[in-house]
Specification:
Elements: H1 15-31, H2 46-49, H3 54-63, H4 74-78, H5 81-84
């Protein structure tokens, strides 16, 4: 898996960004406005292929859609199956006995 930024700037002179944009362009040329799902998602190069699952890849690519109007919203991302299955270290509300509404004892 890649750590850090996949590219320094959104510039086609950066090889990783160029591969990313080429993958999106090929996808959009083929499927037009079809949403990303289990069967349809762009192939954006080795950085994205190194993500551990297709679910992870699809979620990240939805957030990085080159058209800002087509990107998923924060609510969409938080409702994604992959995101919902990320374990978190914050307590569930029912486990917060003795804690008041502002999270302080």
């Amino acid at each position: 898996m890649h750590n850090g930024n996949p590219w320094q700037s959104a510039n086609k002179n950066e090889i990783n960004y160029a591969v990313f944009i080429e993958g999106w362009q090929a996808f959009l040329d083929t499927v037009k406005d079809t949403p990303i799902d289990e069967n349809n998602f762009p192939q954006c190069g080795p950085i994205f292929n190194s993500l551990s699952s297709n679910s992870q890849r699809r979620c990240v690519l939805k957030m990085l859609h080159p058209n800002p109007e087509s990107r998923c919203t924060i609510a969409d991302a938080l409702n994604d199956r992959w995101i919902k299955h990320i374990d978190c270290c914050s307590p569930e509300p029912k486990e917060m006995n003795g804690v008041n509404g502002n999270g302080l004892d």
